[in-house]
Design goal:
two-stranded antiparallel ribbon; Enkurin_dom; Enkurin_domain-protein; about 5% strand; 4 strands; calmodulin binding; cytoskeleton; single chain
Length: about 230
């Protein structure tokens, strides 16, 4: 029996495997006699010589033999007591949390191990709780009902809102009245030795106090309603 693939296998052997039986290529070029090794041919060529320049800051010179160090300087600081006080008053360092996962005592960082719960990694972290949303809706609804109630009462009572010009005019009038009452109060006698004088002084003080209260109310509240008289 002769295989029909004998010729194919023989060609493959000559084509691929026969060329790899030697160390290196099968055919080598013969070196030329002129390419012999010359003296200093493999030495590295150095770069051209440059002048050295010192650019760094020089250290201070060595002191002379005639120079004497400063003597007699002593520190009154008690380093022993100072160090002891620093240790006593210092805050103790907290030990770093670790965990041991085998009997040989290998220590690992507990913070990055995943064993400690991190709330910032929760799915609902930073999301407003449902009960707060519900409470906000209730508060909003109650505010809307209160506003509707106020509007209804204002409509029933036929309240009128003072404009900014009217409010400013009333405020200036109150201040002017207070100045007049204050001027009259300043013109009172120094000695209050009679009942009519005491009554007049008390009346002026009450008027000034009432005007100050009205001025404060107008300055505090920007929106003012008044009832229409029928």
């Amino acid at each position: 029996y002769v295989s029909i693939f004998k010729a194919t296998v023989k060609d493959d052997m000559q084509k691929f495997k026969t060329a790899m039986k030697t160390m290196g290529p099968a055919k080598l070029e013969v070196p030329s006699p002129k390419d012999f090794l010359k003296k200093h041919s493999k030495e590295k060529i150095l770069p051209p010589k440059k002048k050295f320049e010192w650019n760094e800051h020089r250290k201070p010179p060595v002191p002379l033999r005639t120079d004497h160090p400063v003597m007699g300087i002593q520190s009154e600081k008690n380093f022993i007591n100072t160090n002891a006080a620093d240790v006593i008053m210092g805050v103790a360092k907290k030990p770093k949390p670790i965990y041991v996962d085998n009997r040989t005592g290998d220590k690992h960082d507990l913070e990055t191990s995943g064993l400690v719960p991190k709330y910032i990694n929760k799915k609902d972290y930073g999301v407003t709780p449902e009960y707060i949303c519900k409470r906000n809706e209730e508060v909003k609804k109650a505010q809307e009902e209160y506003d509707n109630y106020i509007q209804e009462n204002l409509r029933k009572a036929a309240m009128k809102r003072l404009s900014d010009e009217e409010r400013e005019a009333v405020l200036q009038g109150l201040k002017k009245n207070w100045e007049e009452v204050h001027k009259e109060f300043q013109s009172l006698s120094v000695f209050i030795d009679s009942i009519p004088k005491k009554i007049r002084k008390q009346k002026l003080e009450e008027e000034m106090k009432q005007l100050e209260h009205d001025i404060g109310v107008l300055e505090k509240h920007k929106v003012i309603y008044i009832a229409n008289k029928k």
